């Protein structure tokens, strides 16, 4: 397990240790407990974003496969229409075309969501790295 990831048990133990060390039993946040809290939240968010990113990628792949299948079926249907233009076939062709448009629209929406998640991930990574850099430089003197 990654040593930078803090489990809920470790975090709870840190909080209870901090609370027990204070005689008035009021937990004052120490720098280490705040760091542990930040690491815990960051690891939780990282896990959630990784999970969402994976599911969004799977959905995009699935949509691409579906779109490919619909394109293939549309071509086959066009071939059937050339051979036998029956009203029944025309009705189903219209339905398939409508489904194709909806799938394309949903695919565009999923790609937009994926880009937004990527932007959020980059922003969080940038904020996290700048906070880590600020901690390493230490407090500024005035």
TrEMBL record:
Record-level Gene Ontology MF annotations: SNARE binding
TM regions (residue ranges): none
Keyword flag Glycoprotein: no
Gene Ontology terms: biological process: endosome to lysosome transport; intracellular protein transport; lysosome localization; lysosome organization
Signal peptide: none
Keywords: Coiled coil
One GO term describing the cellular component: BORC complex
UniProt keyword Transit peptide present: no
Family: Belongs to the SNAPIN family.
Name recorded for this polypeptide: Biogenesis of lysosome-related organelles complex 1 subunit 7
Organism: Kalanchoe fedtschenkoi
